Amino acid sequence: MKKHLLIALACILSGLFFFGIPDTNAYAATPETLSNFDHIYYADNNPDLLAAFGYDKTLLYNHYVAAGKAEGRAARFQMQRTSVFDDLYSYYIYDFNTRGYRKVEQLRSGYYFDAARYAADNPDVAAILGNDPAVLYAHYVNYGCAEGRKAYGTSNEINAKLLVFDVIDEIITPGMTDRDKILAVHDYIVNNTYYDVVNYYAGTVPNVSYSIEGVMIKHRAVCDGYSKTFEFFMDALGIESERITGTANGGSHAWNRVKVDGIWYYIDVTWDDPTQGAAYPNYNHLRHKYFMISLEEMSRDHSTSQDLSN
Fold first, then answer.
1. pLDDT value of position 34
2. Within a domain: residue 17?
3. Domain end marker among 52, 77, 102
4. What are the tens digits of pLDDT across the range 53-93?
5. Which is higher by pLDDT, 170 or 96?
6. pLDDT band per the 50, 70, 90 thresholds, residue 24
7. In the 8-state DSSP scheme, what is residue 118?
């Protein structure tokens, strides 16, 4: 108790005071590194560089760092599988000088990495490196992931996000345009998810149906789960997107928008999945009525208070 009072007194004297610990399981911005660099996107959007370097990732990245960024050339950096294990730990500090709170963020690398399972699944690694979680995570990031070694998170939600990367490896192929990739993700989610209609009408929707876990592991969700999963796919692919919340037909709803060639297009994956589980077995399971449409078209039956002007 005395120790805590001394810490608080020191904070007060310095003009700062710690307040709360909100917002865990967030992710830091995707770093602009070679491993995250989308070289195909960079080459395809810069024909002169494609002619000079082909699809050589290192040469294209070096050009971007040395000249392309300053020239304003379009580049994109994709989320990596390993970043799923990281956590952006957030807290607030009260600054007596400004009389306001400011948010402070600290990246906890590998926080959600299941080191015990990694050691058990890879006894050759554990025999050399031991069981220290930080050391095992470093091995996975630097070697294990590239070697195809499996890694797991400490929760179903983290493992659901890892599954997203597995699916991307299956449904995304070289040469696909952004529109092709978005379509592949849209169709995957619709074809592998049932709307949780029984629980929805009973007012008993479980928390999992509002999450990525609902879509990727349980294959049953409501609009929150559909839209969050779609957004995470876009993050993993490096495609600019935004999740939108509001109302549709008078009820609370969530959907998405994506930016392709500088233009925002709107997508409602949930409403493109008219299948309502076992309750409506004869419904067509896939449509594209709400795929890549304009704001004007989406606004006919969707409404939001979010600023969609840019």
1. 79
2. no
3. 77
4. 998 989 999 999 999 999 989 887 777 889 899 988 888 88
5. 170
6. very low
7. H
Does any domain span residue 107? no
Enumerate residues 6+ apart whose C-beta is below 8 A from 4.
none
Q: Does residue 122 fall inside a structural domain?
A: no
The answer to whether residue 220 scores a pLDDT higher than 50 is yes
3-state SS, residue 242: strand
* Other C-beta atoms lying within 10 Å of the C-beta of residue 30: 16
Structure token digits, residue 64: 């971007």
Instruction: Assign 101 to helix, strand or coil.
Output: strand
- Whether 165 and 73 map to the same domain: the answer is no
Specify whether 177 is located in the same domain as 291. Answer: yes
Extract the tokens encoding 270.
Answer: 């949930």
Residue 185 · residue 233 · CB < 8 Å: yes
- At 105, the amino acid letter reads E
Cα distances (Å, whole numbers) of residue 21 to 25, 31, 92, 93:
12, 24, 7, 10
User: Contact 227/302 with Cβ under 8 angstroms?
Assistant: no
- Note whether 175 and 299 are same-domain residues: yes
What is d(CA 98, CA 88) in angstroms, rounded to the nearest whole number? 25
Domain end among 26, 59, 77: 77
Kindly give, in sequence order, each residue whose CB lies less than 8 Å from that of residue 76, ignoring residues fewer than 6 positions away: 38, 41, 42, 238, 239
Does a structural domain hold residue 262? yes
Checking if the pLDDT of 25 tops 80, the result is no
- pTM value? 0.79
Residue ranges making up the domain that contains 63: 39-77
Count of structural domains within the chain: 2
Which residues lie below 8 Å from residue 37, measured CB to CB, with a gap of 6+?
57, 60, 61, 64, 75, 77
CA nearest 264: which of 294, 290, 236?
A: 294
